[in-house]
Design goal:
Largest sheet: 8 strands, antiparallel
CATH architecture of the largest domain: 5 Propeller
Distance between the termini: 23 Å
Helix content: under 10%
């Protein structure tokens, strides 16, 4: 596939897959797991309405330098109480590490007038409220700048309480107004083993018993390529006997106005390479540097009430995902058994993407997410991070000793990229760690012929660890090349490369 990116000021090619790679030799690709913040959890239960906390969304306002967080709290109230079991609470921070919970006079809790509660469930069964908050800086209506999607049980126009997806709006992220008509999308909630409905079968509310529907764990983000809102979440798939609600896969629904949502499309499901008891608990998606990334929650129901680890899946279009890192988790459960995140990791679709770092805020349980008593959970919100662009890297293998080589090679490898249109390219940089080795880059014609001045021998050695190593040659500049397509070849000697950045005039 040829790249034509000169309409953009800059573009990134990340080496998480071989989409832009013609071939490579003597190399291996490795996932770069996220690193936990040393002082986790950053938020933990402190109030009577926070018996357990989990699902979270975070927004970083670059203009104000402020972080806002919305997190789900389970209150464990009595069945006789009118106070909802599941709430949305609010916190804020100046640096993303230390958080405060402002006391607001919005919702009381069993006699406590000032709380940090900003949203409560509508129905009597809203035990998995699962809020997802996004911010739309281009929204012309200031009262809808903050948008929330959530799962709830809502009384519909016929007077019957139905499960489904609902939305709410706010001007500041604190004062919320629920959209009055709901649910916006009907959902099937835990009706295990039901027969698939027949076309036109709507009596007794069977229109809400939909085979392909979103469930209670859902996440929203803005799809910059399609210019619309995308809502990802778990969806039931049918069992071996054809009956409904066997296990969860990943589905997507779309909207241009955040109110009217399309029928979900199933995108990704557990397959024959997965263990029998594994399913997707949720699959939040975000867009970063030209690619879609999914923080796929792998729920293992065979272990301790359904434990959850996080797998990284990738896509170039937001609908076709691959799972290239099944042998290693992007964010595994904490190995310390008494830790708040030792049992389940609950990720969201709103990482904070900074210039040099990506932060992932997540909820954590010390037990399994299913089959556990929320009242007995140790829980909290944690943070993990990676350097920007370093989801995965390509490194040389320890030794290449194939008989077609003159001699065995130790930690030597190369990546040859597909032809790139170099028209208006002003500079190149490489995201690489060559702290113990060296990287050199040469340019070839689109037919693989070396170019004088841009050969391996002409390349300035790249040494050290940087997100933006400048790619240079001793006696030539990139703007001296004629307009057209060229091949880049990256030579690694005991080094790791993560991606390439092209800057245009």
């Amino acid at each position: 596939m040829k790249l034509h990116m000169n309409s953009r000021k800059s573009s990134n090619i990340m080496f998480v897959d071989d989409q832009h790679i013609l071939y490579r030799s003597g190399t291996r690709r490795s996932l770069c797991p996220a690193t936990r913040f040393a002082h986790n959890p950053i938020i933990w239960p402190t109030f009577p309405w926070e018996v357990a906390i989990g699902w979270t969304s975070v927004y970083h306002n670059p203009d104000l330098g402020q972080y806002q967080m919305w997190y789900q709290a389970y209150a464990n109230v009595s069945k006789e109480s009118e106070t909802p079991d599941t709430l949305v609470c609010y916190a804020e921070s100046s640096d993303g590490y230390e958080w405060k919970k402002p006391m607001l006079n919005l919702f009381a809790f069993e006699g406590v007038g000032e709380t940090n509660i900003v949203m409560v469930g509508s129905g009597g069964h809203s035990i998995r409220y699962g809020n997802s908050v996004v911010v739309d800086p281009n929204e012309s209506d200031c009262t809808r700048r903050y948008k929330m999607g959530f799962f709830d049980f809502i009384v519909d126009s016929s007077g019957v309480e139905r499960p489904g997806l609902a939305v709410a709006f706010s001007h500041d992220g604190i004062h919320w107004s629920k959209y009055p008509e709901g649910p916006r999308l009907p959902a099937n909630y835990c009706e295990h083993g039901e027969d698939v409905p027949i076309t036109g079968e709507t009596e007794n509310g069977l229109d809400y018993r939909v085979p392909l529907s979103m469930s209670d764990a859902v996440d929203i983000f803005w799809d910059p390529l399609r210019k619309l809102w995308a809502w990802y979440g778990k969806s039931w798939i049918d069992g071996p006997d054809g009956r409904m609600a066997w296990k969860h896969g990943m589905a997507r629904t779309e909207s241009r106005n955040f109110i009217d949502w399309s029928q979900p499309n199933l995108l990704m499901v557990p397959d024959d390479s997965d263990p029998e008891h594994l399913e997707f608990h949720s699959a939040p998606v975000f867009y970063c540097d030209g690619m879609y990334f999914c923080l796929n929650q792998l729920l293992d129901r065979s272990t301790r009430g359904g434990v959850i680890d996080i797998e990284l899946a990738v896509s170039h279009d937001g609908t076709n995902f691959c799972r290239p890192f099944r042998d290693q988790f992007f964010l595994p459960r904490n190995s310390e058994l008494k830790a708040f995140d030792a049992g389940s990791i609950l990720t969201n679709a709103s990482p904070v993407i900074l210039d040099k770092e990506i932060r992932f805020y997540y909820g954590g349980y010390d037990q399994g997410a299913t089959g556990s008593d929320d009242a007995n959970l140790v829980s909290g919100v944690g943070m993990a991070s990676i350097p920007r662009g370093r989801f995965a890297g390509i490194s040389p293998v320890d030794e290449s000793s194939q008989t077609t080589l003159r001699d065995p090679l130790k930690k030597i490898g190369q990546i040859t990229l597909k032809p790139i249109n170099f028209s208006n390219v002003s500079s190149l940089s490489l995201n690489a760690d060559s702290g113990k080795g060296v990287v050199r880059v040469e340019i070839l014609t689109r037919f693989g012929i070396r170019i004088k001045g841009f050969t391996l021998a002409d390349a300035v050695p790249i040494v050290g660890d940087s997100l933006e190593h400048s790619i240079e040659w001793h006696n030539k500049r990139i703007d001296e090349l004629e307009a057209g397509e060229f091949i880049l070849r990256i030579h690694m000697d005991n080094a790791t490369v993560f991606g390439l950045n092209l800057v245009y005039i």
